[in-house]
Each structure stands twice: as structure tokens, then as C-alpha cells.
Specification:
The protein has a domain of 255 residues: Amidase signature (AS) enzymes, CATH 3.90.1300. An eleven-stranded mixed sheet has the order 1-3-2-4-6-5-10-11-9-7-8, sandwiched between helices. It is 39% helix and 13% strand. The protein contains 16 helices and eleven strands. Strand 10 and strand 11 form a beta hairpin. The chain has 493 residues and is an alpha/beta fold.
């Protein structure tokens, strides 16, 4: 990596504003870094170097005229789930082969309006279904981190694994991501980056390929908390095209950084002390508690009694919504088409060839739980559990708790092709055990790097906040970040 690609968004922004560097120079540095690294990491599935240079030239003109936007000239990677006008958008799936939309997602349009530069589209689990970025049609993404003394390739987490890997490897300044059950926070924790899933409705979902519409939410993955605050400010907006987006002012999140947490109440949920919790994760959690206590926060024990039902309820609600959303991919209007003897056979052949094994598994589960005779027993019951989970959080916040501190993941990153994970899908699903409650309740959650495992791999802590109170999460996460320090992968790629 070059000195320019080592700059955070905040640092690059200052150098661009001071005219110490140009947007074209910064963009060219990232293009060179991608050329050198992507063959090893497989983080990008499509590159847009000429488009990036054109956007960077436009940014330099804006700086010259004094009209620079909030992200002017900052090179970003875009998760392949976001629709980008006339640029590869396939949700890392074979079924969308060749699809280039004639529209731009609201989130990416917001970024371009603020002057950001698009480097390309980032790899991900197919249709955001996965916790390791191994379900992509384009193959697995590799984590830039490796265990001490090991050459074993590790997963970067999922589904936003390409985003997390690219940010950690310094082949983009920041990246868009999405989170349905932990798909921003878990890969951030696995790669030593910062990832925030904002409150449901804070960012528009328009133009983002849907997985589970009541759970999906866009957010950024960045190198530090300040960069996450800067990116989310630009990404968030109300949108007439998305009726679930909320018409609330978007705060200056960056201004919250450096604020005191003295007197804040930080909740520690008993239910997250799961049986068999990795001692290193437990020790990290205790360290995080101590850091916040040292900063003047009050630590209180809380109970979220319905947490134990969150994961099974999530794996009913999410596949049910996925089976409905993915019904639109049939080979008729766009993407892959496999000929058949009649239209029904064409549908069947196309979907059989176009979807990967994990997507098929979730479509089958979702179709089953929505079917006559099972809807009440499974889907309706899961939605009732979801209401109880949400109520648990409401009760805790009503008692004066300002934020909740938990682990982000049950372990550090594991190996690509891990046999235990491959053999039992439930083991893979358990990676989301600490994150799914946030999506089920529609709350904001942030993962921040907090330490290294005994083998030198990054570990993260999670903060959960009140609805639309991302400012408190940024302020508190910044305290943890300052105490823990920053972590950078040793280059092997």
C-alpha cells in the first residue's frame, strides 16, 4: 500500500482541502493498490477505473471552484447489492448475470452527490445470505489478516466480506455495506474495521437488492469511528421512494466524537454470557467494560430475556421474506435465462442454475414456513417473538440505559472451507448470535475493534443504542477506540 492509501477518509479530506494532494492522485493510488491486491483477496467483482478517474477529475474541479462536497474526491468501494447506473450489479449471484441497472440506489446517489468516487463493486455472499463470504458466485473473499505464523486463508465474515476486506487492506478508503442479521458488524469485527448498522429507516433501501425487507439496512464499513461518522452522514436520508425511510434530520455524527461518556449508563445483558463463551471474548468484554468505567460511565447489569429466541426467530423471518423477494428472479426480464421446454420449465431451470446452495436452502425454508398449515406455527409465532425482543430493549432504555455493550462475534475469523462450518449450517448461523437481536428490534448497532486474539487476529465489541441515537454510539465507540488503539493487518497479499 502507498502512503496515500494509508490515509483515513478524514485525513485524505484534509489533504484534499489543503490542496496537498489531488483527487486524481488519490484515486490513481487506490487503482494501483487494487491491481496489486485484488488477485489475492478477491474483494472486488467489478472495477471502474475510468469512471473513477472521471469522477476524481470532476472533484478536483470542484475543489478549484470552492464547491467541494462532504466526501469530495474520496474513493469508495460499493457492495454489489447496491444498484449503480450502467455498472455491474449482480448481488454476487449467477442469476443476475450481465445485469447493469438503468437506475442508481438512493444511498450511492447520496454519496456521489457529496463528491465520492466509485472504485468498483465489492464481493459479498450471494444475495447477502451468509456469514463468511463463501457463498458468492465469484468465489470466497480472503481476509487480509492471518493468524501469527500461519498461511491459512481466513474468511472476512459476511455478507459484506468484500467491503470489510477491501477497507482492511486499504484498497478503498471506505465501503458501503448492508446488515440483515449482522452483515456489517460481524465482518467488521473479523477484519479490525468499524461497521455501523444504523436504525432501520435511517438509510433508504431503494435500489438495494432485497434480502429481508423488514431487516435490511445499509451502513458503512471504515477504518475508524470518525470515518464511519463521516460516511453515514452522507449515506442517510429520507426518501420518497422508500416509505420505510424516516423523515428525521440527519445529525452531524462527527461532532459527537470526543464527547464525554461520564454519567452514561451502559447496560451489560446477562443473556449474552452464553454457555461456552470463548474465554478471549469474555476477557475482551470485561476489558471494554473497564474502559467505559474508567471514562466515567456507569455500568449496570440488565436482562433481555427473549434474546435466546432471537436466532431461531430470525431464521424464520429472514428466509420467509427472502423467498418472497427472490421470486422475482425468473429469467424473463433480465439476468440469466436457461431455456426450457415451456415457460414453467424455463423458470425452474433458470432458478436451479442461477441460485447457489445457501440461497436455495433459505428459499426452501422460507417457502415452507409461509405455506398453508405452517404459517401460524412458524412465521406468525416468530413475528410475535420479534415483538417481545423489541419490548425487552424498550424496557431497558426506559429504565435509563443509554447504550448496551456486548461482544460482536463469538470468535475470531475462521478458515475458508472450515469443515465444521461446512458440515453444519447451524454452526455458521451461530456467528450471528450477538447481532441478530439488533435487526429484529430495528435498533442501531456498531462494531469497533477492541483487541487481538492470542493468535493475533482482531476481535470486536458491539454497542447497541436507542432508535435514531447513532450519535451516542459514535461517541461511546470512539472512547473504546481511543483506549484500544487501532489495528492493521500485516501485508501478505
Amino acid at each position: 500500500m502507498t502512503d496515500l492509501t494509508a490515509l483515513t477518509i478524514a485525513e485524505a479530506r484534509e489533504k484534499l482541502r489543503a490542496k496537498e494532494i489531488t483527487a486524481v492522485e488519490l484515486t490513481d493510488a487506490y487503482i494501483s493498490a487494487i491491481d496489486a491486491a485484488n488477485g489475492a483477496l478477491n474483494a472486488y467483482v467489478a472495477l471502474t477505473p475510468e469512471k473513477a478517474r472521471d469522477m476524481a477529475k470532476a472533484s478536483d474541479a470542484k475543489y478549484a471552484s470552492g464547491n467541494a462536497g462532504a466526501l469530495e474526491g474520496i474513493p469508495l468501494g460499493i457492495k454489489d447489492l447496491f444498484g449503480t447506473y450502467d455498472v455491474h450489479t449482480q448481488a454476487a449471484s449467477h442469476i443476475l448475470d450481465g445485469f447493469k441497472p438503468k437506475y442508481e440506489s438512493t444511498v450511492t446517489q447520496n454519496l456521489w452527490d457529496d463528491g465520492a468516487v466509485m472504485l468498483g463493486k465489492l464481493n459479498m455472499d450471494e444475495f447477502a445470505m451468509g456469514s463468511s463470504n463463501e457463498t458468492s458466485y465469484y468465489g470466497p473473499v480472503k481476509n487480509p489478516w492471518r493468524a501469527n505464523g500461519s498461511d491459512v486463508d481466513l474468511v472476512p465474515g459476511g455478507s459484506s466480506g468484500g467491503s470489510a476486506s477491501a477497507v482492511a487492506a486499504h484498497i478503498c478508503a471506505g465501503a458501503t455495506a448492508t446488515d440483515t442479521g449482522g452483515s456489517i458488524r460481524q465482518p467488521a469485527a473479523f477484519t479490525g474495521t468499524v461497521g455501523i448498522k444504523p436504525t432501520y429507516g435511517r438509510c433508504s433501501r431503494w435500489g438495494v437488492a432485497a434480502f429481508a425487507s423488514s431487516l435490511d439496512q445499509a451502513g458503512p464499513i471504515t477504518r475508524d469511528v470518525r470515518d464511519a461518522a463521516i460516511m453515514l452522514k452522507s449515506m442517510a436520508s429520507v426518501d420518497a421512494k422508500d416509505t420505510t425511510s424516516v423523515d428525521l434530520p440527519v445529525p452531524d455524527y462527527e461532532a459527537a466524537l470526543g464527547g464525554s461518556v461520564k454519567g452514561m449508563k451502559i447496560g451489560i445483558p446477562a443473556e449474552y454470557r452464553v454457555d461456552g463463551l470463548d474465554p478471549e471474548i469474555q476477557a475482551l468484554w470485561e476489558q471494554g467494560i473497564q474502559w467505559l468505567k474508567d471514562a466515567g460511565a456507569e455500568i449496570v447489569n440488565i436482562s433481555l430475556p427473549n434474546t435466546k429466541y432471537a436466532l431461531p426467530a430470525y431464521y424464520i423471518v429472514a428466509p420467509a421474506e427472502a423467498s418472497s423477494n427472490l421470486a422475482r428472479y425468473d429469467g424473463v426480464k433480465y439476468g440469466l435465462r436457461v431455456p426450457g421446454k415451456d415457460i414453467t420449465d424455463m423458470y425452474e431451470q433458470t432458478r436451479a442454475a442461477g441460485f447457489g446452495a445457501e440461497v436455495k436452502r433459505r428459499i426452501m425454508i422460507g417457502t415452507y414456513v409461509l405455506s398453508a398449515g405452517y404459517y401460524d406455527a412458524y412465521y406468525l409465532k416468530a413475528q410475535k417473538v420479534r415483538t417481545l425482543i423489541k419490548r425487552d430493549f424498550e424496557n431497558v432504555f426506559a429504565d435509563g440505559v443509554d447504550a448496551i455493550l456486548t461482544p460482536a462475534t463469538p470468535s475470531a475469523a475462521f478458515g475458508i472451507g472450515d469443515k465444521a462450518m461446512k458440515a453444519d449450517p447451524v454452526k455458521m448461523y451461530l456467528n450471528d448470535v450477538f447481532t441478530v437481536t439488533v435487526n429484529m428490534a430495528g435498533l442501531p448497532g456498531i462494531a469497533v475493534p477492541a483487541g487481538l486474539s492470542s493468535t493475533g487476529l482482531p476481535l470486536g465489541l458491539q454497542l447497541i443504542g436507542k432508535p435514531f441515537d447513532e450519535e451516542t454510539l459514535f461517541k461511546t465507540a470512539h472512547v473504546i477506540e481511543q483506549a484500544a488503539g487501532k489495528f492493521t493487518a500485516t501485508k501478505w497479499w
